[in-house]
Design brief:
By secondary structure, the chain is of the alpha/beta class. It contains 15 helices and 13 strands. The strands form two sheets. Strands 3-2-1-4-5-6-7 form a seven-stranded parallel beta sheet, sandwiched between helices. Helix 8 packs parallel to helix 9.
């Protein structure tokens, strides 16, 4: 089978990890004869130099970011390399509305624009809905990364019924034991932050980071004055919000009396993130809506206590992995965080065996390859 992969987001966020994890396995699969990647050569070529051990990959330049008119026009009239491939894989629903290669498989990660609309302007919701409906209409098959996403998609786009296959994401081996030695210098750089709660999320409305701040404040209130408790000095370390704490979050923290406890860290490597997971008092994941949940699964694999909001995705993916809490009860979050902080961080547990069983990138790559093969056979 010859696959064309839209890899424009190779180095961006969760979708980038999704593309890399699946493609690395396809490049070694005996059932795959060629993989042609569409994207930026300066990103793709160094990565392929280490991953394409069989020499089956090629790069087709397309320097147009996703979700833009330029991206749509870049595809129109020329589907790079598609004529020599059996199937095209779009790892997101930014599918060309004109000139879409066929057959095509599209992955839908979430419907957050429509489940938590207050965080997105009306024009962005309209554009997203247009793209999503067009992608589903043009796709031969659709992959949803959770049952919750599949159900939301079928409700929002009735034409998706019968096209959708649920394939869970995996958890990278970087976040599962046994762990290699920590990078030199991390303990001296960040060890003084302990004890700290951790969030791994951008400052978007649906990420609900204000609740994480409330949890820290509530945990501190539950330590009697003068008591020698860890929560009294608990910090809030935030990954993904930017190089500094956003103004709105900073103001909210000051109002809650924890303004001096916030620490924003810049983009971190997997090795640095693993250290933070392994040394935090707990990962807080209070999202209002998600398509999956890599941070809580990664953190749990590293032995960290995980506190997650009660959503459809949490109920599907996190039983036995996280403590699921109501999103309207900061007191419950504060109690749970105080108890986690008193234990002074996580340690490796049997949870990692459950994560390996249910959330393997090897399994995800095989299952998605099966969806691609089915689409290719049907033409």
């Amino acid at each position: 089978m010859r696959i064309l992969v839209d890899a424009r987001l190779l180095r961006r966020g969760g979708i980038g990890r999704y593309v890399r994890e699946l493609s690395e396995r396809w490049l070694t699969s005996p059932g795959v004869d060629a993989v042609r990647f569409v994207g930026r050569p300066e990103e793709l070529e160094p990565w392929l130099a280490h991953t394409d051990t069989r020499g089956v990959a090629s790069v087709h330049p397309l320097d147009a970011g996703p979700y833009s008119l330029r991206a749509q026009l870049s595809w129109f009239g020329r589907s790079p390399g598609a004529g020599r491939c059996d199937v095209t894989f779009f790892p997101h629903y930014d599918v060309p509305l004109a000139g879409c290669p066929k057959p095509a498989v599209v992955t839908v990660h979430d419907l957050i624009h429509f489940q938590a609309p207050r965080g997105f302007p009306a024009w962005k919701r309209w554009a997203g809905a247009t793209l999503l409906r067009g992608a589903v209409a043009r796709a031969s098959r659709v992959v949803a990364i959770s049952r919750a996403t599949a159900e939301a998609l079928e409700a929002f786009v009735p034409g998706a019924a019968g096209k959708v296959t649920v394939v869970h994401n995996g958890v990278s081996e970087a976040f599962l034991p046994p762990f290699p030695p920590d990078p030199v210098g991390l303990e001296s750089r960040w060890g003084g932050l302990r004890p700290f709660a951790l969030t791994v999320a951008p400052d978007k409305r649906h990420k609900n980071l204000a609740l994480a701040l409330e949890a820290v404040a509530e945990a501190a209130r539950r330590i009697p004055p003068g008591a020698d408790g860890t929560a009294a000095a608990l910090r809030m370390v935030m990954i993904g919000v930017g190089p500094t704490v956003p103004e709105g979050l900073a103001r909210r923290a000051v109002a809650l009396g924890v303004g001096d406890r916030l620490v924003a860290l810049p983009t971190v490597s997997d090795e640095e993130l693993r250290w933070l997971y392994r040394n935090c008092a707990a990962l807080l994941w209070p999202s209002l809506a998600e398509g999956f949940g890599l941070p809580p699964l990664e953190a749990a694999g590293c032995g960290a206590p995980v506190l997650a909001g009660d959503t459809a995705v949490s109920r599907e993916l996190l039983p036995g992995v996280a403590l699921v809490l109501p999103l309207d009860d900061p007191g419950a979050w504060g109690d749970a965080l105080r108890q986690a902080a008193d234990r002074r961080g996580g340690s490796a547990t049997a949870v990692d065996a459950e994560i390996r069983r249910r959330f393997s990138w090897d399994q995800a790559a095989r299952a998605t390859l099966g969806v691609l093969a089915g689409a290719a056979e049907r033409g």
